[in-house]
Design a protein that fits this description.
- This protein has seven helices and seven strands; from the N terminus they run αβαβααβαβββαβα.
- It is α/β, with parallel strands linked by helices.
- The chain has one domain: SPOUT methyltransferase, trefoil knot domain (Alpha/beta knot, 3-Layer(aba) Sandwich).
- Strand 1, helix 2 and strand 2 form a beta-alpha-beta unit.
- Helix 2 packs parallel to helix 3 and helix 2 runs parallel beside helix 7.
- The protein is globular.
């Protein structure tokens, strides 16, 4: 078995223009007042990897172009569509009007463990990730369709937003692919 590392030109990566014209996964990532520019850039990069439809940047979440976002996005701000909203509620309501199922990533009294969440084959989803300290705002939890929790077994009670986005997008992608 060959274990030679592949060169970049062997990976079959899309160009920005082919990415923009490719069929996207019907997933919009909503960042609810995210502070870290590195987290924002990492989420862009992960959204690119999973052909997410768009990222909605809300509240005081920074927007491209920004040097620190670009540092971790590695060009994904050029491929992934994004839109800024003054409030997360405005973004969520606009998605609900387009029949997106709103999934807040938060630990709540009735949150569903990620492994138990079953997406619909043709469903459209919005994944809301909250502030690094305060999580998803309660007002957004109240208007979400479902709260999803990533089970954790150590002493910490949360993942970094960029890590959470990777876990949830991978889970959603693999579950939808199996339908």
């Amino acid at each position: 078995m060959s274990r030679r590392k592949l060169d970049n030109d062997e990976l079959g990566r899309k160009t920005v223009s082919s990415f923009k014209s490719a069929r996207k996964n019907p997933v919009v990532i909503v960042l609810d007042n995210v502070r870290s520019l590195n987290n924002i850039g990492s989420v862009f990069r992960t959204a690119d990897a999973f052909l997410a439809e768009a990222i909605y940047l809300c509240g005081y979440t920074a927007t491209p172009p920004h040097r620190d976002i670009h540092k971790t996005a590695l060009g994904a701000t050029e491929s992934v569509e994004w839109k800024y909203f003054r409030s997360t509620k405005e973004a969520v309501i606009s998605l609900k009007e387009r029949s997106y199922h709103i999934l807040a990533l938060e630990q709540t009294e009735s949150s569903v463990p990620l492994g138990s969440f079953s997406p619909k084959k043709n469903g459209c989803y919005a994944l809301v990730f909250g502030n690094e300290v305060n999580g998803v705002d309660q007002e957004i939890i109240d208007i979400s369709d479902t709260c999803i929790e990533i089970p954790q077994f150590g002493t910490k009670h949360s993942f970094n937003i960029a890590v959470s986005a990777g876990i949830v997008l991978w889970d959603l992608y693999t579950k939808r692919a199996a339908l």
